[in-house]
């Protein structure tokens, strides 16, 4: 059973394709890394998958009980977002907004969901702290907890470790791996980190002059030089 299928998909702007002929599926529990050089269309594909912009051609289909508004999203952080003047708890709770249906307060269940997400991401002790006083790694864990409030089945992460030091990067990857392995959360991750991709991914989508989609083993068979950190495609 597939959760997400891109069928003859072309993505781009104002009818002009940046990427075309994309055909791939994601199953529950997959860990898909989307790699490719700058400008290859990773963010455009992600926005199309999230339904934030229409496909130029083709379709994005969801299945296995997953609806398009049930994909949790961790955007790439901008400096303005890093300075956001709200408490950790408020930010995590705001992930529940899609569930509120216009209601101007959070229910007991939503507050519990936020508490559980903060515990899973090890930020419960920071609940009352102001977001902008946190370290980069703590901020990313808060945003992951927020994404978990929005969706439990699939997370889309746009370069979740950019700007983090190696130790914090390792911790972040560890938390994401636990969500995937222990909680069965499907992961779609845009990454520039080929070593991490080859360590954690079950599947790889490489965007570029040639598009590749397949398992990590297929990728390594086709592009053995990827291990050496060389240009893969
Ligand atoms: N709003 C827009 N309107 C028109 N073209 C755009 C728009 N946003 C991006 N593009 C173009 O689409 C192409 C793909 O951009 P995109 O941001 O998806 O690439 P990316 O792989 O995510 O790059 P990066 O790794 O630098 O984040 C680029 O040529 C870019 O200039």
Q: TL;DR of this structure?
A:
By secondary structure, the chain is an alpha/beta fold.
Task: Based on the model shown, name its key terms.
24% strand, 6-stranded mixed sheet, 9 helices, Rossmann fold, 233 residues, 35% helix, alpha/beta, 3-stranded antiparallel sheet
Strands of the biggest beta sheet: in what spatial order? 5-6-7-3-8-9
Poorly predicted parts: none
How much is the average pLDDT? 90
The CATH homologous superfamily of the largest domain is named: P-loop containing nucleotide triphosphate hydrolases
Secondary-structure map with pairings?
Elements lengths: L3 E10 L2 E11 L4 E6 L5 H8 L7 E6 L8 E4 L4 H4 L5 H6 L3 H4 L7 H13 L15 H15 L3 E5 L7 H18 L2 E5 L3 H7 L2 E5 L4 E4 H7 L11
Parallel strand pairs: 3-7, 3-8, 5-6, 6-7
Antiparallel strand pairs: 1-2, 1-4, 8-9
Helix pairs in contact: 5-6
The chain binds adenosine-5'-triphosphate (ATP).
The site of adenosine-5'-triphosphate (ATP) has 10 residues, from helix 1.
Describe the fold and architecture.
By secondary structure, the chain is α/β, with parallel strands linked by helices. It folds into 2 domains: 1-66 and 154-233, P-loop containing nucleotide triphosphate hydrolases (Rossmann fold); 78-152, no CATH class. Helices cover 35% and strands 24% of the residues. It is built from 9 helices and 9 strands. It has helices at residues 42-49, 79-82, 88-93, 97-100, 108-120, 136-150, 166-183, 194-200, 216-222, and strands spanning 4-13, 16-26, 31-36, 57-62, 71-74, 154-158, 186-190, 203-207, 212-215. The strands form 2 sheets. The protein has a 6-stranded mixed beta sheet, sandwiched between helices. A hairpin with a 4-residue loop joins β8 and β9 (212-215). α5 (108-120) crosses α6. The longest helix is centred in the C-terminal third of the chain and has 18 residues, at 166-183. It is globular. The two termini are 30 Å apart. Residues 13, 18, 36, 38-44 line the site of adenosine-5'-triphosphate. Keywords: ATP-binding, Nucleotide-binding, Transport. Belongs to the ABC transporter superfamily. GO terms for molecular function: ATP binding; ATP hydrolysis activity. InterPro entries: AAA+_ATPase, ABC_transporter-like_ATP-bd, ABC_transporter-like_CS, Metal_Ion_Import_ABC, P-loop_NTPase. This is ABC transporter ATP-binding protein.
């Amino acid at each position: 059973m597939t959760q997400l299928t891109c069928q003859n998909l072309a993505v781009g702007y104002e009818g002009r394709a940046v990427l075309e002929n994309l055909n791939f599926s994601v199953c529950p529990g997959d860990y898909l890394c989307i790699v490719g050089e700058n400008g290859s269309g990773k963010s455009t594909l992600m926005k199309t998958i999230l339904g934030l912009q229409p496909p130029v051609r083709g379709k994005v289909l969801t299945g296995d009980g997953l609806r398009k508004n049930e994909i949790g999203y961790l955007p790439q952080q901008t400096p303005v977002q890093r300075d956001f003047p709200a408490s950790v708890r408020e930010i995590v709770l705001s992930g529940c907004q899609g569930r509120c249906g216009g209601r101007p307060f959070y229910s007991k269940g939503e507050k519990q969901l936020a508490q559980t997400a903060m515990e899973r991401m090890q930020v419960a002790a920071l609940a009352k702290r102001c977001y902008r006083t946190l370290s980069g790694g703590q901020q990313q864990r808060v945003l992951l907890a927020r994404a978990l409030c929005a969706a439990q089945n699939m997370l889309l992460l746009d370069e979740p470790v950019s700007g983090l030091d190696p130790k914090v990067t390792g911790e972040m990857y560890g938390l994401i791996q636990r969500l995937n392995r222990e909680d069965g959360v499907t992961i779609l991750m845009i990454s520039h980190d080929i070593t991490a991709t080859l360590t954690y991914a079950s599947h790889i989508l490489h965007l570029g002059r040639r598009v590749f989609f397949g398992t990590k083993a297929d990728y390594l068979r086709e592009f053995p030089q990827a291990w050496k950190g060389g240009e893969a495609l």
